[in-house]
């Protein structure tokens, strides 16, 4: 029992990670991380969530739901920024928690994040496919049912060909290196932000002040049992909206490839989140001002619909095209981060070590595995499959990182370098970040929590059956024991 406890709580030496990741090329700048973060966070959700949440939960106060979700995300982002500055290792939360709490806890945090990346890749690819097909359909271009929908759908589909193709395109791009990927990402993100700003300015010319009253509708219970109106409705909207903000963790996963990570990581993480919050709140306020919030009920494309109803059909077409581009940038961010996390597991022996091998100083083996799993999920399962598990897994990692700051601080300036950025209002803010993430996790539906529990149990089986016995820290310990004897 003592041997098992020793293995589970053995903390990795940060110098070991620094050495293992030294072959990764540090080429990413603050500009690259800002683009990566904005590209991942400001995805298709900015074109759908404001209208959906306004109609289902919050009314015009949807802007307050976005702000509340942003406050929680911001508190966690401060913790991420300090961790990334102090320990710029591949794998983000997994590697950090391994150093400050021990291997077992790092595995839990990393395994939770892995669910996010696997499913997010599949969902973003499926969503991109649906929007792309909607964009070309008016031109008379339609794929056959067998190639346009997932095999587990109800419309006679066999596979989602567009989802497969787009995942393979991103894989090809990422296999050429982070710096080349960053150039493409930077260009696409600039185009996306410009299009969103165009919507904000065009939509602002069609506002009707009566649509903002009452700003917080009277509370009642929807037919499905969920809350609408009042502070209860705003809170219900927060749990649904928080999914939109989780992309900043994808920045941290690539910190081993950052130039001057002491400065670039905090700036990239916090800067991208600030830009995203501004865009989300602005889009939400314009959208509910253009038409009554109830008009967006069961509307899959509220932004495009509002523009067309206001006589701006051409702008609506551009926005829908940008939505496709936006999902492409999000797919780049998720696949980049997911491949680095898988590489970290292989690097430490918790998953087969060949995943941690580099090819031309790039973790392309891990990328290939992520691609295969993403294709299987994205092409053969409908995108509603396990939707909220993305939020559930990420929130678990967020809780670990928030309380991890308490274990990090006493070691800064000792075996861990003193970071140039520190989480403000310590020791209060880490606790608030933890409680905020826990509160949002608690607000997820029972199905999401059940799936998260199932994924957690599967992760425990993998760890105790394979990872614990094959980890490099266990192997190093055995070598040291043999040497001492």
TrEMBL record:
Membrane-protein topology: Multi-pass membrane protein
Top-level taxonomic group: Bacteria
Localization annotation: Membrane
Presence of keyword Acyltransferase: no
Any one Gene Ontology molecular-function term assigned to this protein's record: amino acid transmembrane transporter activity
Transmembrane segments: 33-54, 61-81, 93-110, 156-175, 187-209, 229-248, 269-293, 313-343, 364-383, 389-408, 424-444, 450-469
Keyword line: Membrane, Transmembrane, Transmembrane helix, Transport
InterPro entries: AA/rel_permease1
Keyword Lyase: no
Cellular component, GO annotation: membrane
Protein name: Amino acid permease-associated protein
């Amino acid at each position: 029992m003592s041997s098992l406890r020793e293995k589970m709580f053995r903390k990795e030496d940060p110098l070991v990670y620094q050495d293992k990741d030294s072959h990764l090329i540090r080429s990413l700048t603050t500009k690259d991380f800002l683009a990566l973060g904005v590209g991942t966070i400001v995805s298709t959700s900015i074109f759908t969530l404001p209208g959906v949440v306004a109609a289902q939960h919050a009314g015009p106060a949807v802007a307050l739901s976005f702000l509340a979700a942003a406050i929680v995300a911001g508190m966690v982002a401060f913790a991420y920024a300090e961790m990334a500055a102090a320990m710029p290792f591949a794998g983000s939360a997994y590697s950090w928690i391994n150093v400050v709490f021990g291997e077992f806890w790092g595995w839990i945090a990393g395994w939770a994040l892995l669910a996010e990346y696997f499913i997010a890749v599949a969902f973003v690819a499926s969503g991109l496919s649906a929007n792309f097909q909607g964009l070309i359909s008016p031109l008379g271009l339609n794929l056959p049912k067998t190639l346009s929908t997932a095999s587990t759908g109800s419309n006679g589909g066999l596979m989602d060909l567009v989802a497969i193709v787009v995942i393979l395109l991103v894989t090809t791009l990422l296999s050429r290196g982070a710096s080349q990927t960053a150039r493409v990402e930077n260009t696409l993100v600039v185009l996306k932000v410009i299009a969103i700003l165009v919507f904000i300015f065009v939509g602002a010319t069609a506002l009707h002040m009566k649509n903002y009253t009452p700003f917080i509708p009277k509370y009642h219970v929807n037919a499905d049992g969920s809350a609408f109106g009042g502070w209860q409705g705003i809170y219900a909207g927060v749990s649904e909206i928080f999914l939109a903000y989780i992309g900043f963790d994808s920045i941290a996963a690539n910190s081993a490839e950052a130039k001057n990570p002491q400065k670039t990581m905090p700036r990239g993480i916090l800067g991208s989140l600030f830009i995203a919050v501004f865009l989300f709140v602005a889009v939400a306020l314009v959208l509910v001002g253009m038409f009554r919030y109830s008009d967006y009920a069961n509307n899959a494309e509220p932004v495009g619909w509002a523009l067309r109803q206001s006589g701006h059909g051409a702008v609506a077409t551009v926005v829908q095209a940008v939505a496709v581009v936006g999902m492409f940038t999000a797919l780049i961010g998720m696949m980049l981060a997911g491949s680095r996390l898988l590489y970290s597991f292989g690097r430490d022996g918790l998953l087969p070590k060949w995943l941690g091998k580099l090819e031309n100083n790039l973790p392309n083996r891990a990328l290939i595995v992520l691609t295969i799993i993403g294709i299987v999920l994205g092409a053969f399962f409908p995108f509603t499959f396990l939707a909220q598990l993305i939020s559930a897994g990420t929130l678990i990692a967020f809780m670990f990182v928030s309380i991890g700051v308490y274990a990090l601080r006493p070691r800064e300036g000792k075996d861990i370098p003193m970071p140039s950025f520190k989480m403000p209002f310590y020791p209060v803010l880490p606790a608030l970040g933890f409680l905020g993430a826990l509160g949002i996790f608690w607000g997820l539906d029972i199905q999401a929590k059940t799936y998260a529990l199932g994924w957690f149990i599967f992760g425990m089986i993998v760890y105790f059956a394979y990872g614990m016995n094959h980890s490099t820290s266990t192997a190093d310990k055995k070598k040291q024991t043999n040497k001492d004897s």
